[in-house]
Queue: 4 jobs
Job 1
Amino acid sequence: SDILDNLDIAYMGTLGASKNKWTFLVDVNLLNLDFDDSLTILDNPLVSAEITDVELSAWSVSPIVSYNLLDTPRVSFDVLTGARYLYIKLEADLVKSLLSSTTVDSISESGHNWNGIIGGRGNIYLKGNWFMPYYFDVGTGDIDLTWQAWTAIAYKFEHVALSLGYRHIEWDFDDDPAGGLIENLSASGPMIGIKYWF
């Protein structure tokens, strides 16, 4: 609910190409949040301070290569490897008041990291045109840990599949890319998807 209330823009998309048992994918995620609420960090009759107008911008790109190990009428499974790049930027205003004097300082911190990932992806085929796609990965590199997982229920038409699922993605930082302001970043929730073959 906090994300929906403060959401400026969000995007998730994947582009892939397959030949024989090999598949190359590029997964892109974009998120921009703008929090209008203020956070009081100091409040007394002489001096006060609060943080306002917090904006979080983040985007990630994951180039991935997968190889099919299992392909039966009921299930398919690919092993995958790749990398995940994350860029994150935090901006805020620090409003300080001393007696009757007020000053506003702008805060801006940004950073990025690369992490190698391994995992799996595939489909569980149900009756008719129904199937369950799934995906999971885990990785490390510039940070302690990043991982994601999602699954969905989908229906395939001739060249299009519609799906409804749930996704979680997370980063746990050791050397924080945002100036010590973030310990971890995660997003999870339901998703509606459209997949198109051409």
Job 2
Amino acid sequence: MSAFGNSGGTPAGQAKRQIRPQRAAELVAADIRGRILSGELDEGLPTEMVLLDEFSVSRPTLREALRILETEGLVRTRRGKQGGAVVSRPTVDTAAYHLGLVLQSVSVDLNDLAKARHLLEPLCVSLAAQRPDREVLAAELEALVDESEELIGDGAAFTASLLRFHEALVKACRNETLQILVGTVERVWDSQERAWAQEASERGDYPDK
């Protein structure tokens, strides 16, 4: 008798489970997804007839695969004579959109978001300060500060200029992972701050100089 209490290798009293193989639609979606992310499919997908022939699947299976990719934001359907499935590669903006939805779903407030931003951004600054061309970078950032000062009095424009400064800080780190991670948080914050600045300016209660 085995250590599990039976000869089949399954713990005593536990029924065997059947593992369902991946559906054909999921396999097709995985193949197309990989080609989109690698850049092989950079603009549009082949026609439906070409894909049906390539994967040897039914039309409903192919369309289900495309729906999976559309849900992931990797494919969108374009209507009209020039219609068809169009590739939409993920960007920081699309990541920010989904992060915003997640934060909203768990009721994260702006103070929480601001704290995360203030903790993450200095990591980018630290790496930027180690660049051999940091003096040139500092001059570029000072120019952005000067630009902001010239816009004092125009709330929405001043805020937009400040956000460009913070975006430049993130890009200056030259670490792709941090640029995407912190850049995504920055995008979510930016959308909120731009909306606030516009509303405050229209109400006439944007903070004075």
Job 3
Amino acid sequence: PFSTLGWPESTKDLEYFYPTDVLVTGYDIIFFWVIRMIFSGYEHMGEKPFHTVLFHGLIRDSQGRKMSKSLGNGIDPLEIIEKYGADALRLTLVTGNAPGSDMRFYYEKVEANRNFANKIWNASRFIMMNMDEGEERCKGALEPADRWIFSKLNQLIKEVTDNMEHFELGIAVQKVYDFIWDEFCDWYIEMVKPRLYNTENQESKDAALFTLKTVLLHGLKLLHPYMPFITEEIYCTLQREEESIMISKWPDYKEEWNFPEEERAIETIKEAVRGIRNIRSKMNVPPSKKVPIILLSKKEEVLEIFREGEPFFLSLASASQMTMQRGQEGIPEDAVSVVISDAILYIPLEQLVDKKAEVERLEKEEKRLEGELKRVNAMLANE
């Protein structure tokens, strides 16, 4: 740490850079290298060379073997970067890896992280395609979905900052990954699409665009240490206030971005949407088919949640309409139900499936299974 800085002369570099901050190294050279640097530092400079050493594991092949020339199982990083991108490789090496633990290298992981980069790219393009001057003006009038995503982002900033300060890099980036892919792309963007396409309510559209842009920019900052290239490219294209994401301010936890009520409300709607999607999937109902939904709840606050979130709930649940009521009247006996906290959602069976076609399908399945049973029994009876 000192010999590269002009030692034994007393240079400006030596004065400025020694002692350094953190040494990151593999555990296999603790005795060959790390300890030698420490005792040499004390011997020649009278001071430790760094205050923290972070040990990481080794990268092994998919069978768990150490990479070596004799086995020919090493990888050329440049080839992987050429095929999948440097960001995808970099994210692969830090995701799901506890400090000090060896990791196995799989090409499938790199491909999955390349897909994540594509997801961010497409989300950014979608936002830019819909952006106009409106989103720059909007500073208030946020709707429940906007306040929900800000609240989730706020918690993420707090947790990720804490994880990084404790060198829990794999845990931190997994949280950022889950937030961007799941909460932001799969839920929030889908929630606000009806507002972006609604030309009659410009204020609502402005609030959605302001939220989309602000949350994405903060998400990119949190992801930047792990995927520097794509985050820099999108950040510099999306805004003009800061020259580079690399020297922009790290996001701060803000008390005014806490919206616990909206978090509870949107999580309730998400629970309902998941339940309805599961039912539709089990019954092979295509996403294009819109069905009516009856919401039954004795709690006014639950009914109010669905009244406020009705536009995006109908879109996410592929519903044609929603009826809200407190009692059982008017609910068909054969309706399929989805139970969530403090509410039940009903879908009339005939709206989900064509009964005649479904009976035919089940009769065919019955014949197929009877034939299979006959075949199996014949095999088992054969001495």
Job 4
Amino acid sequence: MSLHSSIQQSSDAMGELFIWTDVDPAHELDFNRWYDREHMQERAAIAGFRWSRRYHSTTCPRPYLALYRTESLKVFTSDTYRQAFTKQTEWSVRNFSRMHNTQRRVAAVTLVYGAGTGAGISLLCLGSIARAEQALKLCGNLGQAAEGILSAKILTPDPALSTPLPSENTSERVLEPYLIIDATRTSEAHKAAAAIAKQLGLREDACHTFDLLWDLQASDL
């Protein structure tokens, strides 16, 4: 795997669709059924998508995270993706309306450490590109920061492609970069992210830990 020495922001960079949300508890069961029985497969099947992944947190007030990797950011301007985004199923429309405080980002991916998918991740909100560049340099020592660290990446949202969903408060919207650390245990992912947060002068509550619910590879369809 080729790692980068600077933050990727070009349209040729690998892309990732990032959906971080809360959901109305009264409809949480249907929300999970929709994701697991329809939405994950729909997105993974779009030309140019590589995989879909879902995560859940028991501590974060925005507990659900979905990530979708694409070959490049250009996939999000393709006719196939546009059709999928603008022609949602009735089940999708119902569940989008039940989502709260949602962040939808289309981001360029910078691979900064290792390889592999762990049992959980830690998500560190970086606040700015300057901090993302600092975080990139710090990630070279991730293997020493905690046990079982597998990989890390930085996601840099593209302003033009990161169209907000209706449940996001656009008056408070910040398109900040994220560091995502994969590890064999969520406690170790958090430990590594918290160490980087401290070095960057960020509060520890900028870190959020998620368990992997499941992974769907486009090649499996």
